[in-house]
Amino acid sequence: MEARSKITIILAVVLILITGCVYGQDRAINPNQLPKTAKNFLFTNFKGTKIGSAIEDREIYGVDEYKVYLANGMKIEFDSRGNWKEVDGKHQKIPYGFIPKSITNYVAKSFPHTSITQVKKERWSYEAELSNGIEVEFDRNGNFTKIDD
């Protein structure tokens, strides 16, 4: 391979890396700029709780996710369409209205005197962290699968 081709390849790689660094950044946005689905979720489940800040995570192809930090310290992550991915109460009890009933019922029955302080929704599962530090996993239908402590 001649030197000119090597330089061209190196410059192309450097350009791709620089572009990725420029576009792969978080930026603060006005909460009104959140997708309607995210705004509805916040209004329904956190009514009366002020939004401290909203962050948009942009990638080359567009928005990857949104992060909302509430004044009470809680953090909510949304996908690019505004669907919730994670609610982190930062050791505080989170609202249960959006969590499948089978999960909240299991936690209430199996772990009385605890509360859900964090919940993550994955493509095929849910993970709930309890106030006693135990993590409980469920399938996408909300059926218990295992405990991680």
Describe the structure.
It is a single chain. By secondary structure, the chain is α+β, with helices and mostly antiparallel strands. It is 28% helix and 37% strand. It is built from three helices and nine strands, in the order H-E-H-E-E-E-E-H-E-E-E-E. The longest helix is centred in the N-terminal third of the chain and has 21 residues, at 3-23.
Helical amount: 25-40%
- Which regions have little confidence, pLDDT < 50, spanning 5+ residues? none
Spatial order of the strands forming the largest sheet? 1-2-3-4-5-6-7-8-9
Q: What is the CATH fold-level name of the largest domain?
A: Inhibitor of vertebrate lysozyme, Ivy
**What gyration radius follows from the Cα positions, in whole Å?**
20 Å
Strand content: 35-45%
CATH class of the largest domain: Alpha Beta
Report the total helices. Answer: 3
How many strand units?
A: 9
Secondary-structure element series: HEHEEEEHEEEE
Structural class: alpha+beta
CATH architecture of the largest domain: 3-Layer(aba) Sandwich
> Gap between N and C termini, in Å?
55 Å
